[in-house]
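Customer escalation, tier 2.

The customer says the design service returned an amino acid string that "doesn't look like it belongs to this structure." They asked us to rerun it and document both sides in this ticket. The original C-alpha cells are below, unchanged.
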C-alpha cells in the first residue's frame, strides 16, 4: 500500500502522538509498504529519524496564524511561504506558548475544521500541490481528528479513503475558551462524517469520541499503541539501592506533576520510606519553566531539594537507563488521558506504575496487570499507593514483571503495525456488497 501519514509536530519537545506515528510508519515500511510521514504545523521531535522526504512543513504554525489574523496573507509568494515554513524559525516560535495553547486557538481551530472553506485553505492547497506529483496514495492517514476538515478535499483530489486516529484531542477541544468550544465540537462532528474509519488508541477514548462525535460504532476500531520493548532492558531483579519514584512525561500541570510532588512530600514528612528519591524526567519547554521553578521552590521550602533529580528532555538511551533505576513510576494526569504511552514505557522496563482511576488507566492496568490505581487528584491517595509498593518490593517486582510480559505479548510496535495494516487493507479493499441488485 502507498500510505500518506499527516502528523502535526511539536517543534521542541517529544509528544506521544509523534512518537506513535513515527514508530508506526517505520514498522509499516518494514512490512513492505510505501509509507511516508508528512509534517504539519511544526517540526517533528522524535526518537528515531522522522521518515520523511525533504519537504517544507505544511500548514506551518506561522502561516496558519497569519492567515487567521490577516486574511490578506492567505496567499503569499512562494519565497515568503518558504520563510514562514522554515524549521529553524518554527522551532523558535514553538517556544511561544500561545502558538499551541488551546485557550488561544479557538478561531484557528474552527477555521482548520472548515477545511477548504477556512482561512487556511491556501495552505491545504499547497500540501495537495506537493503531494500531487508523488505516486498516488491508497490511503491517507490523519494523526488526529482536529485534521478532519482536510478529509473532503483530500478525498476529492486523490480518490482514496481517509483514516483518522483518535489519540487525545478531546482535552484540547475542552480547553478551548467559549464561544469556540461547543462550536468546535459541533463542527468536528460534521466533518467526522467525511472520514472513512477511525482508529482509537484505547477503548475508553474510542467510546468517548463515539459518543461526543455521534459516530457509528462500526467505524471505530481500537488499536493499542506499541513500544520498542527490545530497546528497554528490564530493571534489575533486586530493588534499587535507594528507593526511587519516577515521573516520565511533559513537565506540565495537566500531567499531574504537582500532585506527585505533594505525594512525595507527604511520604518524606513521615519518613515513610527511608532514603526515598523523586526522579523527574520528560519534556520541558520554555513555557513549562515557570511551573517547574515553582515546584522546585516548594520542594526546597520543605528541605527536600537534595532528594529530587530533574532530568529534562532525555534521549532514548538516557530514558532507558532512567527507567532501570526506578522502584515505581507515576504520571498522575489530571484529565482523562487517551492512553499514556509512558505507562507502557515503564512496564516495558519491568517498573510498576501507580495511576489515577480515570481515563484509559483502568483499562491499561486491567490488560497488563502492571500496577495499582488510586483516587485522582488526591496527593494522599497517591502517596498511599506509592507507599504500598515501595514497602513491598516483592509485590512491586511481581507487578512489574507481569506488566513487562503483557507489553511483550500485546503492546509492541509490531503488533500495532500488524493490526493497523489489516485495518488499512480492509478500508482500501472493502468486501463486495451482499446486496442483490433489483431486476
Amino acid at each position: 500500500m502507498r500510505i500518506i501519514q499527516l502528523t502535526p509536530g511539536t517543534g521542541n519537545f517529544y509528544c506521544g502522538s509523534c512518537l506513535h506515528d513515527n514508530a508506526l510508519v517505520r514498522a509499516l515500511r518494514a512490512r513492505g509498504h510505501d509509507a511516508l510521514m508528512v509534517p504539519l504545523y511544526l517540526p517533528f521531535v522524535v526518537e528515531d529519524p522522522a521518515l520523511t522526504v525533504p519537504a517544507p512543513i505544511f500548514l506551518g504554525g506561522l502561516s496558519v496564524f497569519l492567515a487567521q489574523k490577516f486574511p490578506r496573507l492567505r496567499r503569499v509568494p512562494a519565497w515568503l511561504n518558504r520563510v514562514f515554513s522554515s524549521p529553524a524559525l518554527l522551532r523558535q516560535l514553538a517556544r511561544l506558548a500561545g502558538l499551541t495553547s488551546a485557550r488561544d486557538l479557538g478561531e484557528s481551530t474552527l477555521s482548520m475544521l472548515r477545511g477548504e472553506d477556512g482561512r487556511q485553505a491556501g495552505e491545504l492547497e499547497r500540501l495537495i500541490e506537493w503531494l500531487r506529483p508523488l505516486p498516488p496514495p491508497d490511503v491517507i492517514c490523519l494523526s488526529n481528528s482536529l485534521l478532519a476538515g482536510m478529509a473532503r478535499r483530500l478525498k476529492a483530489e486523490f480518490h482514496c479513503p481517509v483514516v483518522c486516529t483518535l489519540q487525545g484531542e478531546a482535552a484540547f477541544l475542552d480547553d478551548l475558551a467559549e464561544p469556540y468550544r461547543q462550536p468546535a465540537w459541533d463542527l468536528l462532528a460534521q466533518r467526522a462524517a467525511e472520514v472513512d474509519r477511525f482508529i482509537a488508541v484505547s477503548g475508553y477514548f474510542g467510546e468517548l469520541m463515539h459518543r461526543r462525535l455521534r459516530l457509528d460504532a462500526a467505524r471505530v476500531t481500537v488499536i493499542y499503541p506499541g513500544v520498542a520493548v527490545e530497546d528497554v532492558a528490564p530493571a534489575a531483579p533486586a530493588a534499587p539501592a535507594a528507593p526511587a519514584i519516577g515521573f516520565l512525561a511533559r513537565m506540565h500541570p495537566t500531567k499531574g506533576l504537582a500532585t506527585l510532588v505533594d505525594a512525595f512530600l507527604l511520604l518524606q514528612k513521615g519518613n515513610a520510606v527511608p532514603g526515598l528519591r523523586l526522579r523527574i524526567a520528560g519534556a520541558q519547554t520554555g513555557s513549562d519553566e515557570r511551573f517547574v521553578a515553582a515546584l522546585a521552590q516548594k520542594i526546597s521550602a520543605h528541605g527536600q531539594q537534595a532528594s529530587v533529580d530533574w532530568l529534562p528532555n532525555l534521549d532514548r538511551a538516557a530514558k532507558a537507563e532512567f527507567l532501570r533505576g526506578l522502584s515505581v513510576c507515576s504520571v498522575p494526569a489530571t484529565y482523562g488521558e487517551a492512553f499514556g504511552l509512558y505507562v507502557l514505557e515503564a512496564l516495558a522496563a519491568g517498573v510498576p506504575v501507580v495511576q489515577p482511576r480515570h481515563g484509559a488507566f483502568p483499562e491499561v492496568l486491567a490488560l497488563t496487570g502492571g500496577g495499582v490505581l488510586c483516587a485522582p487528584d488526591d496527593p494522599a491517595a497517591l502517596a498511599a499507593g506509592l507507599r504500598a509498593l515501595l514497602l513491598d518490593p516483592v509485590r512491586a517486582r511481581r507487578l512489574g514483571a507481569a506488566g513487562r510480559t503483557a507489553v511483550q505479548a500485546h503492546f509492541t510496535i509490531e503488533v500495532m503495525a500488524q493490526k493497523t495494516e489489516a485495518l488499512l487493507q480492509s478500508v482500501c479493499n472493502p468486501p463486495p456488497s451482499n446486496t442483490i441488485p433489483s431486476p
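Tier 2 assessment: The sequence is consistent with the input. The longest helix spans residues 393-410. The CA atoms of residues 354 and 372 lie 5 Å apart. Sent an explanation to the customer and offered a walkthrough call.
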